[in-house]
Amino acid sequence: MPWFVWLLAAAALGVAEFLTLTLVLGLLAGAALVAAVVAGAGVGLLGQLLALAAAAAAGLVVVRPVALRHMAQQPLMHEGSDALIGKRAEVVQEVTATRGLIKLSGEEWSARAFDESLVIPVGALVDVMEIEGATALVYPRELLP
Questions:
Q1: Buried b vs exposed e over 90-109: b needs ≥16 C-beta within 10 Å?
Q2: Cα distance between the two ends of the chain
Q3: How far apart are CA 64 and CA 57, in angstroms?
Q4: pTM attached to this predicted model
Q5: pLDDT score recorded for residue 21
């Protein structure tokens, strides 16, 4: 089979992968590229089909599982209010189970105590444990008296 037919097949499979995002058709497109190179080197149809099969099998057995694991991982960077979780803040207005105010990343945020039995005094340093809407749930960094 001429090499340009393999290139057309690779292009068609690449477009189909772009539309479906299955990670299978793209690997088959890569295998078709390998077959095009083999065809360009003057190898017969049987050699081209063997190269196609070997490249497709290698892609599906080796590359696809690694790609799927990588796609399933959570992002390393947090965005928006999730990025504030774990940050340190200073209490500006006493924090109780129902209300309070903290200075977090240069801004004032409404806050509540993560442990509802705590009352955190002004000036105490706290860690942001969760964000619920526009309210930070905080816990003191040091034991309270």
A1: ebbebbeeeebbbebeeeeb
A2: 83
A3: 10
A4: 0.53
A5: 84
